[in-house]
Amino acid sequence: MSTLAATLRPVPVPTAEAVRRDPVAQAFLVMRIAFTVAPILFGLDKFANVLTDDWTRYLATQFNDLIPGNAADAMHIVGVVEIVAGLVVAVVPRFGGLLVAAWLGGIIVNLLLVGGYGDIALRDFGLLLGALALSRLASAFGDQRT
Description:
- By secondary structure, the chain is an all-alpha fold.
- Helices cover 78% and strands 0% of the residues.
């Protein structure tokens, strides 16, 4: 099977027995849940504004100039992308982990361009590494422990 086909093949959720006995299955399940739920919640909040009252302050003007509409429209687009990324992780974690890692890379660049958010950029770098680890765990779990 090609690498692309393997990356896009859905990975089943580990069985209850596997989660009880296998640390790899435990780590995989925890990370899969986290990287499914967090992007979906952050994406939904781009519309609800519960976590912050102004998501647009995190948007670099360089990116805002590339995205159609105003900054609020851009953040709604960001929200949709985050929701989709979370759903992709739920179904295809090998690819979803890579997608979330790339998205976090873009967020890091954006935050560094805005300035003043280096602490958040560093946190997101840690999340990026976690997303890459999820992709690798999905590969190992899907190929060896199904």
